[in-house]
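Let's sit down with a protein and look at its sequence and fold side by side. Which protein we use is up to you, so please pick one and set it down. Label the sequence line and the structure token line clearly, so we can match residues to local backbone shapes. Go ahead whenever you are ready, and we will take it from there:

***
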Amino acid sequence: MTENLLERHVRTRDPHIPQQIDALIELAGGGSSENFDLYRELLRSAVQLIAENATRWDAKIATAALSEMVNGFGWLRRFERRRKCSVFGSARTQPGEPDYTLATEIGRRLAQEGFMVITGAGAGAMQAANEGAGPDDSLGFNITLPFEQEPNRVMADRPGLMAFRFFFTRKLFFIKESDAIIVLPGGFGTADELFEALTLMQTGKTPIVPIVLIDHDHSGYWDDWLRFVEGRMRDGGYISKSDTSLYRIAHDAESAIALICRFYSNYHSMRWIDNELRLRIAQPLEPEKIEALNREFADIIKRGAIVQAGPHEEEQDEPELLSMSRLAFEFDRRGYGRLRELIAELNNGALAAHCTTNPLQTR
């Protein structure tokens, strides 16, 4: 319907516009690109905005958001082979406080395990995590605000710093780039980032990655959060029982890192091919294990069964992953908490002393 509406607008203004759009893509060097159809849709959307005589405010939002995303994609390309963990927490956490010390240790241990640490580049817990990782292993997604907008001293004027105008594009990049997420106590912004990640994973809008909620012993912050989420949301029927499997709790840096490394001890990443979900794993499973998975997770198999397979022909574009085994099945696209539990089962029995695999996600 959107396509028909767009074509009607285009024909009304000039019947040659679709051909001119294709010619422009050719002129820009995208004529032979596998993304040709997507570039066409991108330009047609811009034409539709013009044809509908958008308000200046709407046009400014669309232009600024797209520009911010394009700049971000290009800027992050140099880091695309690095694993990354987003660390969320309060800008008001002070040096010397237990959460500040904890965030510093988290950053240090993540860098030791080969992760880049992504923060909001602000003060408090964000600065602490950047300090622990060091500027060369840190990325800062700063936000332009009338207060707290200055990047912290670790990230200021560093190549790993990028400024965002919009919270929604900033959150998009946090989620898109994260192979893991660690959340410390914080305020509205921290809660927003956490619930955004949980919602996107719960609904299948982003691949599942480990989410670790961490506070120091005796803090009680996440205990209170759990009482609300599990006592009110889960027990009240507002979320599924398995949705609480999307996160884990830790009280020290070593436990948090161990949970992340455990997640990637055998499981590597996922990819959709048509209606089939394919889970890439470092070590193939025994037939008995696959039979057990089919029994245990029958509720999320839409039809057929979980089978072990080699790479699909469409996966040839990721040659570094071709040696991995796959578990392929028709997932019901609803039980993402249960899918997280399945991933945990894939890692049972695998060694997880270090994050030895490279969890690059196919987005």
